[in-house]
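User: Predict the structure for this protein chain, please.
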Amino acid sequence: MAEPVRARRLTDQESRRLLQIVRRGKHGSVRVRRAMIIMASASGTLVPAIARLVAADEDTVRDVIHTFNAKGLAALDPRWAGGRPRLISDGDIEVIVTAARTRPEKLGQPFTHWSLRKLAGYLAGLGRPVRIGRERLRQLLHERWRNAHARHPDVLAAQRRERARIRSERQQRWGRPKPKAA
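Assistant: Here is the predicted structure, written as structure tokens:
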């Protein structure tokens, strides 16, 4: 039979930090639960009892203890992956944006304007094909165009001043004409 899993002996600084995290409870539920697991294991509590205490699976408790023994307090922070890996690199995005900003005639295509379907087809047929769906292509181009054509704050302020001047000349306030006296 394998030896029971236990957390290594805590230093004074580690025990103070763990106690602080558990008492305050404001560091996120994952950190608090992991701190409770480590403290319980360091005090001699067995894995099945710790699992019942924190309402977690026994394998999860063992993983946290092993990670703590290897990394120390860094084990409190979860290392979640960011989801599905990116299929389109930054270089691919630049190719997409460059192609979208270039007229199709200059790229040897028999039409004058891009549609999402035509652009996606063109990108898939390149020497280094960029496979992208129409919806993702639409989202990507929308992000790039919106950011590229955002107005400068100075221009926006000047436009607001001009609109206010025009309203004051017409004696308007809040977009409504001033009522005429009878």
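The chain has a mean pLDDT of 84.
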